[in-house]
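A quick aside before the break. I want you to see a complete sequence-to-structure record at least once, exactly as it would be stored in a machine-readable document. Don't worry about memorizing anything.
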Amino acid sequence: MNTKTVFRTLSALSLMILPACAQMLGQERLSAPEEIQMSKMNVNLYPVTKTVCDPMGGDNDPRSNAGLKAELYWLKSGAPSAANTSDLIARGTKSSQNLFFTQLNVPTRQFTSGFTSETGAAVKNDTGEVLIENFAMRFSSVLRLAPQQAEGLYELAVLSDDGTVLRLRDEDGVYKPVVDSDGDHPTRLGCSTQKIAMTHETEKLMQLDYYQGPRYHIALVVMMRKLGENEAAGRDVLCGMTSNEAWFDSAKSSAPQKAYQDLLARGWQVLTADNYAIPNTATFNPCKDGDEPTISNLKFGESFSDSVVLEWDTDLMATSQIIVTNVQTGASLISTSDNVLRTHHRVVVGGLEADTAYSVKAVSISDTYGRRVSSALSYRTTP
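That is the input. The structure line, written in tokens, reads:
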């Protein structure tokens, strides 16, 4: 049986952990239906193996609706190169991963080691290559004022390396460019040329396309400034200024330079987590900070030639899943959860190859969406 067939079978058999099959699989059964506690959120919607939390840095937010959600596009080997966001999104392959961000505040820095996901591994494209260059992200969020910001007219700007296009949806439901700083370039301040009226009730659907071309720098800082009554947008003396060295020193931990400090002195502010809300299309933010369960007593159950049985305990009521990875091929799959909360967990996944080495991890997610992934255990199926 080839690897693709094995993991197609593995995917199908992972559905066996649904409640109807719980007794057959040995998952903990509760004595009466009324005792079953279901998770408030469907943990299968954003699997931990395909969910990337703040890979550009930043702390997770405890609010379930805060932040930005991003789609990732990347170029396959041999595909024509792209020179801006629209080219790469049009020519690129859309990743199956879900990326969530608290805010966009990445001063110019070196970008040779890639991003780090919540599981501790570098973010990769869908063929397993570490993501470093030639990709694009399409961020979606709701722009709003932070509680401490005054109502009034504002202008927007983006410091980026490489290109960005920031769009806001108008009353006709059309996303129109507000900041257009697209293309292949060092860190540049792209400025809006229109005023935006903001109150504490204002919520503007926004879309930000970001393009990372050839390495070696990355920058993405979204900013806003309150305008005076007679001020026009887009008139800052540094609008359009392009230079990696003028804004931040990437060789010294992205230390702010005079140009950036001058922006702050003139009233520019970096958008914080309070300025972003997850659109309704994302349902919820799986990167919120919740109470993380502690995993203990992790052990394998019976040994089989085509299955793995993993058991563990948690100190908090949490869901049950396991990640199974073929050590030789690297093919990986996470089982489907029944979304039942429990403290004793037992999951069976079948469809494995006989006499084959696997790496197995337990995953438990609490009702407040605190996530815990165990260390890997080595497992070999019997001949």
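Two observations worth writing down. Residues 54 and 101 are 5 Å apart (CA to CA). The chain has two domains: 3-45+288-380, 48-282. We'll return to this after the break.
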